[in-house]
Amino acid sequence: EIVLTQSPGTLSLSPGERATLSCRASQSFSTSQLAWYQQKPGQAPRLLIYGASSRATGIPDRFSGSGSGTDFTLTISRLEPEDSAVYYCQQYGTSPPTWTFGQGTKVEIK
Amino acid sequence: EVQLLESGGDLVKPGGSLRLSCAASGFTFSNYAMSWVRQAPGKGLEWVSFISGSGGTTYYADSVKGRFTISRDNSKNTLSLQMNSLRAEDTAVYYCAKLMKKDFWYGYNYFESWGQGALVTVSS
């Protein structure tokens, strides 16, 4: 089973700054199997990025994903106050089919 | 607009049973695989179970295998999760989620839309 480790645990930045979130896997897998979600307090998660770099419908272009192998990154280019949330990476495996989430990175806007 | 509405969450004693439902609307339900994902209080997300669009393929997390059963009624646009032999560690908000494709082997196995969740508390 692949383990996803996200860092940092918490990121505290000002509006307009750039946020870089990391997701590191215990073993390599295809970029087509990696997604990022945003969860605000009291709300359900929302799909941001799938296939490591494709934005989901309606997601602003300040959100971007990159990476391959075992190292993946979510970048928020210009933080806005509404970006305050916990961000999760997620991978799915095929043998057997399973889904794994990282433990999350909390982004705080100063 | 895709809408997913969970119901059935409750307080149940250890060893008890509970059935969650998810009413889907705004899309052709039978064309999409569905899953349940849970979140324990103050914790991260944990995938629980998957079912294909036809209902013919199901997968479970090891933590619930043999205790939980996922099913769907495509004539009623409803997804269900039967939970038996409940334990304290099953306490969580349970989300139903729509995937991008009809079955696992089509790829794009991401949770594209989510309901607002149903709280299940297992405590004596």
What report would you give on this structure?
The complex is a heterodimer of chains A (110) and B (124). The model of chain A has no long low-confidence stretch (mean pLDDT 96). Chain A has no helices and ten strands. In chain A, strands 2, 4, 5, 6, 8, 9 and 10 form a seven-stranded mixed sheet that branches. Helix content of chain A is 0%, strand content 60%. Chain A has 110 residues and is an all-beta fold. Chain A has strands at residues 4-7, 10-13, 19-29, 34-39, 46-50, 54-55, 63-76, 85-94, 97-101, 105-109. By secondary structure, chain B is mainly beta. Helix content of chain B is 0%, strand content 48%. Chain B contains no helices and eleven strands. In chain B, the strands form two sheets. In chain B, strands 2, 4, 5, 6, 9, 10 and 11 form a seven-stranded mixed sheet that branches. Chain B has a four-stranded antiparallel sheet with strand order 1-3-8-7, with no helix packed on it. In chain B, a hairpin with a 4-residue loop joins strand 7 and strand 8. Chain B is globular and about 40 Å long. The N and C termini of chain B lie far apart (40 Å). The mean pLDDT of chain B is 97.
